[in-house]
């Protein structure tokens, strides 16, 4: 990536818009970025990094904080970079989040962060827009194009001031963290953690399985697997016998229950026969009531035949009553409508007389309207005059107030500037406090670890003494147990020989040697030892041997722990240096003092930020007030002219109105009354006409309704006479003597259904009872009732016996099932245990090797970092040898004999003048810079090589060349010139005057009270 042009606007110390044309520096230039301290040299690198990644070079300042305080409020903070990558030109523009003045009105609004990325044509015009606005999309696209993220870019293309000197002097632990980030070796650390986690999980699983096996045996109340086999062998025949006894008792119970059930069924038949006889007797008691129901049903049938004639008579009478009611209503309505028609005619006459007053009222209404319009104009002019006059007075007061406020803001800004200078001076004095606090906190942690190791060492030493005593005692007990077992075995053999001697006979071959003579047979002794005693002695010997081995392992473990504790204590003491011998309280007090300095630094930083914010707010307020005052003065003059003009118009209109017409409210009330009076007259005339028309229509409708009601009455009376004749004829032909008897015989449908249901239910139930009773009489003709008490007793006794045998069988069978399940679980658990132990042999070994628990105790990541550091030191030493005229080389310190777990990453410098290696901390200021620069360039080369072969065409170095003498400076420039000849653009940031002579091509940064500016100088190549 090669930068072409960089445009900075309101960024850092640059108040305006500054453009740096890198192409004007020549092809692959070696140039100097020169300027006084604080002018903005490093801000150029910040702008370059911000344009590509949205971050500054040190990533210590938020981009939103990079706005220039001297910039105009309307000027937007932004950075635009044109660069070339693999022969293609691109342009990126970034705007950080910031506050800007509102387009309308007062105050500010937040301008959100944005970014655009374009691909350019050869002539510099835009070819394609790759990203339109989103910041994250632009960052991701640029990372893909360049092949580096922001951190890698800062490591290999922009070397920030002081960062690699920190790496040169860092401890092994700190360098391990830095290198793991640079070379992305976290994968090896994750491998270590994964292997350690896997091994720990398998180890826990093995322990859990052992506990699981013990739990399985304990759950079955078994001491061992041998006891399980013995109990299974003895329990199997017992279960078979118990099952047979249960089956016999079950057959006996079933037989007794069968006899009881048959007797119970016979008993229920006798009871059912007696119950049926009683039910039939009770049922016959309802016979008289059922006969009465039958009679009522017959009378209801005759009355049902007369219902049509009776219904016709009732309908005719109802029709006549309805017609008579309608006649009465029609007569009343006709009288009412005649009265309404007369009243409507009278109202129409009254409205016609008042209608003649309308022309005079309308003329008066027109005149009042004209006066009111002019009066309203006069009122509006008066109101506008008062408003404009008040605006004029208010604007004049605001102008005076804002002028006083502007002077007050100027005084506040001067006070804040004085306070800021004091705070910034204090902040610089406290600049190193965080780093010192971090270093002292690490020392405090290490010192606490050292004290904890000392406490553990005392405990381990005490435990080792106890373990030594226990081991000596167990060794003596094991030797005694072995001697006792040997004696018991010898005595057992002697006892066996005496028993064999008792079976010897003369002239019979000996079963041992075959001799026919037995001159000295063994004699039976009183101390004969049995086989069980021999086995007991052997078991005691084995237990003593295992106890001794356990004690030996425990003693060995304690020895290893003590050695490891000693190694760790030596490592910590070496890292602590002189602090290892100082009291812990002294180190704690030093940390506390540094912590107070850090807190004060943070407080000062917050105060500076607050003061800057307040000063920026005052600047914005001052600018807004200044603009406002310029417009306020013209507004005051305009308001004054407008007030005088409205006053003149008001006076002219007031003179054109009569005296009695100058009260608009009084005229408006008179006008409202006239409008109301006119509306009432017009409404009364229309209402009278409508009322007369409506009353005449309703009168005609009432007369027609009365004629219709009279006709319906005549037809209803004729129909009623005809239906009454037909009803009397039908009643005389029926079995009823009069109409009352007919009414009494009537039943509704629900009553008829209920009576019919009662009769049918009675007859059906009677038939059922007679049939069932006859059936039971046939079945029980030759049978007698059984003895249920005796049969129940026999069945209950059989059930008790069966339950007893079932419980006995279930208990034995349950125990057998449990034991078989335990045997199966043990087999499964032992298989899993064997698999886990095999896995642990693999994973445990890998974990120990990868995590540095064997050999020189070097972890996998630390080994890889050591190889990478060797590559860096080869490149760095080539440059350092030349810069130091062959005196110094950077070498890696390796001293695994001390057991230092973080060893392998310390740096020493090989001094050819003395032939010895010494710490890089012993180098002088200039020598340290040369070593740091060599390490930085070597690290840049190696990181570039390990970053996928990315070709880096640009390198910026922000370092203090002022610490070098003339020869070292010449060597450094010569080395950078070689990099330049290799095709790189090399930019050096420094204010050292000697560099101006050796590097004629430069970018000068000039500072002023209005903001910094840049200028490109030097011959073009």
TrEMBL record:
Compositionally biased spans, kind Basic and acidic residues: 633-650
Biological-process GO terms, alphabetical: double-strand break repair
Residue span of region Disordered: 633-663
Keywords in alphabetical order: Coiled coil
Domain Rad50/SbcC-type AAA stretches: 6-277
Name used for this protein in its record: Chromosome segregation protein SMC
Molecular functions per Gene Ontology: ATP hydrolysis activity
Gene3D superfamilies in alphabetical order: 1.10.287.1490, P-loop containing nucleotide triphosphate hydrolases
Gene source species: Halomonas campaniensis
This protein's record includes keyword Coiled coil: yes
Coiled coil regions in record: 239-273, 313-354, 406-491
């Amino acid at each position: 990536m090669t930068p072409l042009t960089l445009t900075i606007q309101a960024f850092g110390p640059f108040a305006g818009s500054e453009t740096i044309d890198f192409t004007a520096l020549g092809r692959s230039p070696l140039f100097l970025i020169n300027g006084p301290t604080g002018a903005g040299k490093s801000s150029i690198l910040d702008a370059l990094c911000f344009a590509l990644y949205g971050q500054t070079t040190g990533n210590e300042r938020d981009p939103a904080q990079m706005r220039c305080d001297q910039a105009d409020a309307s000027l937007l903070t932004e950075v635009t970079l044109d660069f070339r990558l693999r022969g293609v030109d691109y342009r990126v523009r970034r705007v950080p989040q910031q506050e800007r003045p509102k387009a309308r009105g007062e105050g500010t609004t937040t301008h959100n962060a944005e970014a655009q990325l374009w691909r350019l044509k050869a002539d510099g015009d835009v070819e394609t827009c790759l990203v339109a606005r989103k910041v994250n999309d632009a960052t991701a696209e640029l990372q893909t194009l360049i092949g580096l993220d922001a951190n890698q870019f800062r490591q290999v293309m922009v070397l920030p001031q002081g960062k690699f000197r920190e790496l040169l002097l860092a401890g092994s632990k700190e360098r391990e963290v830095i290198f793991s980030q640079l070379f992305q070796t976290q994968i090896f650390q994750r491998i270590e953690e994964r292997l350690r986690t896997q091994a720990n999980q398998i180890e826990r699983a093995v322990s859990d399985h052992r506990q699981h096996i013990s739990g399985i045996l304990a759950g079955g109340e078994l001491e061992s697997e041998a006891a399980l086999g013995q109990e299974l062998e003895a329990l199997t025949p017992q279960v078979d016998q118990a099952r047979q006894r249960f089956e016999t008792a079950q057959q006996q119970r079933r037989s007794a229950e069968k006899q009881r059930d048959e007797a119970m069924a016979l008993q229920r038949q006798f009871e059912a026969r007696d119950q049926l006889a009683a039910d039939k007797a009770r049922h016959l008691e309802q016979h008289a009531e059922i006969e009465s129901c039958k009679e009522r049903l017959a009378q209801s049938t005759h009355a049902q035949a007369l219902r049509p004639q009776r219904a016709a008579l009732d309908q005719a009478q109802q029709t006549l009553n309805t017609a008579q009611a309608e006649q009465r209503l029609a007569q009343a309505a006709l009288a009412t409508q005649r009265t309404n028609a007369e009243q409507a005619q009278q109202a129409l006459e009254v409205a016609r007389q008042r209608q003649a007053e309308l022309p005079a009222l309308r003329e008066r209404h027109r005149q009042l309207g004209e006066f009111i319009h002019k009066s309203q104009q006069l009122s509006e002019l008066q109101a506008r005059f008062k408003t404009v006059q008040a605006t004029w007075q208010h604007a004049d007061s605001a102008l005076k107030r804002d002028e006083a406020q502007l002077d007050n803001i100027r005084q506040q800004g001067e006070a804040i500037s004085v306070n800021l200078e004091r705070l910034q001076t204090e902040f610089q004095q406290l600049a190193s406090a965080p780093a010192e606090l971090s270093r002292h906190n690490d020392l405090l942690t290490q010192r606490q670890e050292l004290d904890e190791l000392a406490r553990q060492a005392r405990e381990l030493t005490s435990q080792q003494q106890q373990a030594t005593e226990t081991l000596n005692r167990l060794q003596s007990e094991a030797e005694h147990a072995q001697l006792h077992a040997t004696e018991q075995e010898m005595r057992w053999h002697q006892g066996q020989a005496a028993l064999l001697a008792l079976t010897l006979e003369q002239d019979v071959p000996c079963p041992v040697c075959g001799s026919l003579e037995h001159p000295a047979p063994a004699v039976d002794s009183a101390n004969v030892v049995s086989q069980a005693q021999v086995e007991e002695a052997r078991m005691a010997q084995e237990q003593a041997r295992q106890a001794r081995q356990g004690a030996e392992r425990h003693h060995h473990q304690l020895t290893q722990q003590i050695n490891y504790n000693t190694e760790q204590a030596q490592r910590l003491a070496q890292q602590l240096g002189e602090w290892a011998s100082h009291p812990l309280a002294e180190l704690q007090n030093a940390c506390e003092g540094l912590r107070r300095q850090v807190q004060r630094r943070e407080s000062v930083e917050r105060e500076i930020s607050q003061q800057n914010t307040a000063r920026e707010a005052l600047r914005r307020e001052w600018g807004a007030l200044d603009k406002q005052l310029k417009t306020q003065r013209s507004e005051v003059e305009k308001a004054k002219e407008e007030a005088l003009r409205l006053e003149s118009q008001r006076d002219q209109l007031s003179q054109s109105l009569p005296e009695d017409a100058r009260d608009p409210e009084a005229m408006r009330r008179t006008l409202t009354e006239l409008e109301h009076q006119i509306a009432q007259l017009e409404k009364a005339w229309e209402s009278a006409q409508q009322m007369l028309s409506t009353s005449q229509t309703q009168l005609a409708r009432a007369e027609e309704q009365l004629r219709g009601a009279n006709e319906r009455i005549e037809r209803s009376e004729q129909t009623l006479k005809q239906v009454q004749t037909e009803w009397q004829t039908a009643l005389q032909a029926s079995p009823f003597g009069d109409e009352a008897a007919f009414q009494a015989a009537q039943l509704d449908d629900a009553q008829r259904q209920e009576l019919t249901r009662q009769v049918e239910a009675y007859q059906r139930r009677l038939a059922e009872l007679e049939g069932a009773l006859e059936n039971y009489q046939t079945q029980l003709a030759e049978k007698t009732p059984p003895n249920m008490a005796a049969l129940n007793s026999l069945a209950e006794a059989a059930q008790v016996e069966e339950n007893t045998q079932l419980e006995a069988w279930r208990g034995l069978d349950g125990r057998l099932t449990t034991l078989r399940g335990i045997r199966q679980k043990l087999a499964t658990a032992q298989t899993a245990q064997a698999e886990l132990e095999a896995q642990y042999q693999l994973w445990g070994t890998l974990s120990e090797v990868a995590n540095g628990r064997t050999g020189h105790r070097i972890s996998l990541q630390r080994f890889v970092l050591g190889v990478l550091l060797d590559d860096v030191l080869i490149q760095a030493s080539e440059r350092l040898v030349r810069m130091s005229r062959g005196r110094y080389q950077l070498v890696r310190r390796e001293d695994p004999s001390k057991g230092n777990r973080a060893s392998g990453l310390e740096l020493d410098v090989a001094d050819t003048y003395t032939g010895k290696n010494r710490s890089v901390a012993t180098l002088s200021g200039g020598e340290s810079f040369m070593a740091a620069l060599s390490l930085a360039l070597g690290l840049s080369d190696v990181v570039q090589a390990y970053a996928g072969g990315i070709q880096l065409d640009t390198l910026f170095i922000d370092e203090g060349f002022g610490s070098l003498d003339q020869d070292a400076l010449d060597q450094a420039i010569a080395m950078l010139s070689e990099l330049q000849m290799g095709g790189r653009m090399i930019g050096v940031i420094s204010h050292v005057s000697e560099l101006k002579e050796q590097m004629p091509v430069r970018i000068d940064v000039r500072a002023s009270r209005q903001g910094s500016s840049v200028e490109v100088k030097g011959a073009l190549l």
